[in-house]
Amino acid sequence: MFRSTRPARKLLTTLGIFVAAGALVAGCTSNQEPQNESAAPVNAGSSNDAPGKKVVIGFSGPQADHGWLAAINSTAQAEAKKYPDVELRVAEGTNDASLQISQIETFINDKVDAIVLLPTDGAALTEVARKAMDAGIPVINVDREFSSEFAARVTILGDNYGMGISAGTYACKLVGERHLTSPVIAEIAGTDSLPLTQDRSRGFADALRACGQSVSRRVAADFTVESGEAAASNLLQAAPKIDIIWNHDDDQGVGVKAAFDNANRHEFAFIGGAGSKNAMRWIQDGSMEATVLYPPTQAADGIRLARLLVQSKGLSDLVQVEVPRRIVLNAPVVTKANVDKYLPLGFES
Which residues form the Periplasmic binding protein domain (predicted)? Predict the structure, then answer.
């Protein structure tokens, strides 16, 4: 999937790590007798979700030309609607850095309380993000990092290297469970020039190396259905036998699976990436082994954090009283055993 130049440990998701969690309360000293240690602890309920002062959040996201990117925008807007104290001002989705810069300048001039931004280009948007921060408007940087630590109050990222680690670790598990000797492990990458693709491939190779395996065949696509089908077709023609295939992207995977079906090749375990609803339905019907999440909830998480920042709240499950500066979401493996849990987080390709 084309998620541009951002370089799936889930600290928070829309499943609700923030929702109604018990607040951590430090004990206090007094002249009173200590409580019986066997007594049940008393936990204060979190007030984070209780309505507070109104928060105006400006949101600028990508052009929805890909299932994952569309989900970034839709989940952010859906999350804002859950809070009566949040007013969300949504800029038109764009892949034009100049247009996005003007959108952020408008938010600054309008004196919004916070900005949630998935930049078209992190480096190109750094200066205007710093301008917002200098104006006292906290910026929540989503997915594609700025080139300065001073451009954002919070950075929320998926874990591309972690996706590779998760996929490779699961592949190693399959090798052991299926007693595969000299397995042929193939990889269908995304756009090779992107750091995110390089990180995913590096993680996959590192995880395989840990169990004495390596990638036998590798091709690259371009995060599109058409390129996925072409790359997978080339792979199948070159490799008469394959045991495991990891495809980096589930949108691209629509074409990949079409190539498998056209060639009537299904002898291998098919592992996907990103977590589309298509992939999860294939897992349910047995035509796909697993997929690795790259959460499309990052901007939705950004909305929640922006609200907490403006209302001077922290994360109720942390002792630290302020919102962290950097959050990297987990990249869990979705299988038939847990697909029902993750299906609500999936996106339509």
Answer: 57-312
Q: Give residue 115's pLDDT band: very low, low, confident or very high (50, 70, 90).
A: very high
Contact indicator for 252, 276 with CB cutoff of 8 Å = no
Give the domain ranges of the chain.
55-158+296-330, 160-293
Q: Is 292 helix (H, G, I), strand (E, B) or coil?
A: strand
Indicate the DSSP class of residue 63.
-
Contact 252, 221 (CB under 8 A): yes
Q: State percent of the chain over pLDDT 90.
A: 80
DSSP per-residue string spanning 24-61:
P------SSPPPPTTSPP--PBP-TTS--S-EEEEEE-
Q: What is the pLDDT of residues 6-19, one digit of tens each?
A: 333 333 333 333 33
pLDDT at 334: 98
CATH class, 55-158+296-330 region: alpha beta
* Contact residues for 77 (Cβ-Cβ < 8 A; gap 6+): 59, 88, 90
Fold classification of 160-293 is Rossmann fold (3.40.50)
The Cα angle at residue 308 between residues 143 and 67, in degrees rounded to 5? 30
DSSP string, 167-182: HHHHHHHHHHHTT-SS
Comparing 55-158+296-330 with 160-293, is the CATH topology the same? Answer: yes
Q: Token pair 């959460």 is at which residue?
A: 295
Rounded to the nearest integer, the mean pLDDT of the chain is 88
List Cα–Cα distances, 43 to 22, 23, 26, in angstroms. Answer: 6, 7, 10
